[in-house]
Design brief:
Number of domains: 2
Strand content: 35-45%
CATH architecture of the largest domain: Beta Barrel
Protein name: Lipocalin-like domain-containing protein
Number of helices: 2
Radius of gyration: 25 Å
Distance between the termini: 86 Å
Organism: Marivirga tractuosa (strain ATCC 23168 / DSM 4126 / NBRC 15989 / NCIMB 1408 / VKM B-1430 / H-43) (Microscilla tractuosa)
Number of strands: 18
Low-confidence stretches: 7-18
Shape: elongated
Length: 240
């Protein structure tokens, strides 16, 4: 004959097993870092997100934020807890998919679309990093070469740059030169997430001839070489 305690234990296990998993909205509220975006099993995060957009914030009032620079508070979210379904009603950063299956814990969230083509992993963040260049106007001014790295190591002392600079003007023009005078002029524009600056010969030209990356208060580009050449990056800092 079973003891009273074993009977209670058995009943408890049956009760727990019979409970359906549900995701209350409180488990999604807060700041999240997008750690992984898999499409059909392949990691694709760099095709969808960059260093400024790899963040999601679900606010208590029912709005959500995509990335560090998103100031729009009209994006709405809701969750059907009993169905474990998250709805991002004003579009999603992932192929504009609005409905997601969701599993959440205190520190992790897993999202998948109804066809299980996309699988997203979110890690909870206590606070978001600060972005020093947070508007296009912050790019306007004169930038000078500050550092040159080769395969990640500082090799600035081996490269002679006689005060080379690039000036980003507020009319969308750029001027590039050195201490002897201007060498190049053209047009520049940045993307919406303020992570890249593209340079064009002509204002209406479709493809840029070079792209700079934005990282905090620095502009940098990588020289294009063949696969066997060393990785050379040139960094610019703003002087005014």
């Amino acid at each position: 004959m079973k003891s009273f305690n074993s009977v209670i234990f058995t009943i408890t296990i049956i009760f727990i097993a019979g409970c359906e998993y549900s995701t209350p909205p409180e488990m999604l509220m807060g700041k999240w870092y997008v750690a992984s975006v898999k499409a059909n099993g392949h990691e694709m995060i760099h095709d969808y997100l960059d260093q400024n957009t790899r963040y999601l914030v679900f606010n208590e009032e029912g709005t959500y934020q995509v990335g560090l620079l998103d100031s729009v508070s009209e994006k709405a979210w809701m969750i059907h807890s009993d169905q474990n379904e998250l709805i991002m009603m004003d579009g999603s950063p992932f192929d504009d998919i609005k409905k997601w299956n969701v599993k959440a814990s205190d520190e992790l969230v897993f999202l998948s679309d109804k066809n299980n083509h996309f699988n997203i992993t979110l890690n909870r963040k206590k606070k978001l990093p600060k972005v020093k260049i947070n508007e296009e106007n912050a790019l306007i001014g004169k930038w000078v070469i500050d550092k040159v790295t080769v395969n990640g190591y500082d090799n600035s002392d081996k490269y002679a740059f006689p005060n080379r600079w690039i000036l980003l003007a507020d009319n969308g023009r750029f001027y590039n030169g050195n201490e002897t005078g201007d060498q190049n002029v053209g047009y520049w524009e940045t993307n919406s997430s303020l992570t890249k600056v593209d340079f064009f010969d002509q204002k209406d030209q479709g493809e840029s001839f070079i792209t700079f990356n934005i990282a905090n208060n620095t502009l940098w580009y990588e020289k294009q070489n063949d696969n066997n050449a060393p990785q050379v990056r040139v960094y610019f800092k703003k002087v005014n």
